[in-house]
Amino acid sequence: MVEPMKTVCLVLHDVAPSTWVDYQPFVEAVDALGKVPMTWLVVPDFHRHDALEANPAFRQLLDARVGRGDELALHGYYHDDCESAPTTPRDWFMRRIYTHEGEFYRLSRDAALARLHAGLELFERYDWPVHGFVAPAWLMSDGTRQALRELPLSYTSDPQHLYRLPDFSAIDAPGLVWSARSAWRRGLSKIVSDQREQRWREAPVIRLGLHPVDMRHRFSRDYWLDTLARLLAEGRTPMTKIDWLARQRGQLERAA
Question: Pfam families given for it (predicted)?
Fold first, then answer.
């Protein structure tokens, strides 16, 4: 019996012109490892002052990454939360303590659909294939879920699952992610990630979810590069999220 292929997906969050300075040394180090396709979660206008339309050089960089076999996915539109002030304790926690960037956490179906259409139109304008949408901080309102059911996208995700669209069927896809804003958070993140990696040794896929802040500290940056190199050395095949999903679908169809 042939052993199932084990995969690793390298995912760069919050991709924008202003975050490229954080990611560039890491991406160059990954490229030096060999052919490792990545999924780039692209924000069309990061924090409303970093529009892709105003940065042709960065768009050319993304063109080149697509040409290398990388995947670009839509990651919100502004990646900030400028909706009306929270009105409940839970909303206050989610939108002011947990994150200030849950752009799609409170959007109605119509508002979410308008913002998603704007993002997809930008991808189309620059001839970037797009299959996935990932909400900032993985937070989605019911209205956002309704909107996603109406769009020609293949998947969305949360920290531990990929969801096929439009029916939101869940697929286990465990992911490692850090909170790297302070030294104690980085230390705790490494402990938790090491434990999870051991627990997931037999998982068909492990996702590595990186953020720009991870790249600003040698401790966290080295962790991600070392972890990727180790998983590759252990025989995991690097794939983009959409390629892994396509492979999973093919396996299901062959088994049917």
Answer: DUF2334
Cis peptide before 212 (omega within 30 of 0): no
Whether residue 94 is predicted with pLDDT greater than 80 in this model: the reply is: no
Specify the range with the lowest mean pLDDT, choosing from 51-55, 164-168, 172-176, 178-182: 178-182
Closest CA to 131 of 106, 111, 148: 148
User: Where do the domains of the chain lie?
Assistant: 7-255
Q: Which two tokens stand for residue 102?
A: 């849950």
CB 139 within 8 A of CB 159: no
What six digits make up the tokens of 55? 């940065």
What distance in Å separates the CA atoms of residue 8 and residue 120, rounded to the nearest whole number?
27
Q: What is the pTM of this model?
A: 0.92
Position with higher pLDDT, 93 vs 7:
7
162: left (phi over 0), alpha (psi -120 to 50) or beta: beta
Of 229, 203, 216, nearest in space to 14 by CA: 216
Q: Residues with Cβ < 8 Å from 39, sequence gap 6 or more?
A: 9, 10, 11, 12, 70, 71, 72, 73, 132, 240, 241, 242
